[in-house]
Specification:
Length: 394
Amino acid sequence: MADSYEWHPETALIHEGINRSQFMETAESIVMTSGYVYESAEEAEHAFKSDGTRFVYSRYANPTVATFQNRLAKLEGAEGCFATASGMSAVYNALIASVQKGDRIVASKALFGSCQFILSELLPRGGVHTDFVDGTDIDQWEEALSKPAKVVFLETPSNPTLEVIDLPKVSELAHKAGAIVIVDNVFATPGNQKPLELGADVVVYSATKHIDGQGRCLGGAILGTEEFLKEKVTPFIRHTGPCISPFNAWLLLKGLETLPLRVERMSSSALKVSETLEGHEKLNRVLYPLLDSHPQKALAQSQMGHGGSVVTLDLKGGKEEAFKFLNALQIISISNNLGDSKSLATHPTTTTHQRLSDEERAGMGITDGMVRISIGLENADDLIQDISNALSKL
């Protein structure tokens, strides 16, 4: 739409890039098709030789998917976006499209379990080495990036310990080493943090989380420059096929419309929950980026609009007490997902990070008593009461 660049994000997330059919529907249409037809053989030949503006196959591009990509790119402040079938597909494809045999990656060690697997086990099969550092220690970044690297990969805040990494400083060091910076921004969300504005080159999302926001579908996204997407990502994805379905893209479009409202509400509730629980006698600590006790609070305030929707509790008594706590919750459900309108809790040691060794989890700060809570849209006081009641049973 004309002059859409002047709109605020909340408006763009509802109106940006609407591609209505001949029926002039209010909601974006779902173009459920695998392929497209041509008026002539000559038109088909031209379509496959052209610049990609003509839809030729939904593995390559689809009108509904394109609308989602354009709208998310607008929100992120990126030149372009490529949607994928899942968040891990986005992470893997952004990485694999950027490296080749003999390349080196530098990554923060506080990562989601599947990201750890890609970097420490999958990519080495192809001759790509990863050096892991403490993401909060700039000296370790400086040492690791004192020699050439191809990619820097990190998530901030991290899963589940909510460590915050200095994006401008790490990006500066990475670029001097010749590396591009890929940031998993899923915990912060595109509404709370803009990695590209802070020096990063590529942003990846599990759109399954806050972007959908209602636990309905899987999806992922890679955002960056047109050059990166065209030269690196698009050829790889087109020939390997990790594409998102048009229906899932439509659901994610609906999620984008309410993303700012949901994230603001969740973040506000998460702050209230964390402040209320801090110092509780049954807890070793409460982790949340905007708590005074968080070691990177000042950095979080400078990089993030809000603290995000995740609060992590470290319960005294380890796994046994953590399980008793989880089983006593009434409102909050046990699930490995996050970013949902429903509050969800998980025990990382036995679920999302279970494949890691005890030493690896310890190095990431994950304890047996740790419980990650994704705060939803329920009343914050009800959630506090639910958590307090569960803690009282320990």
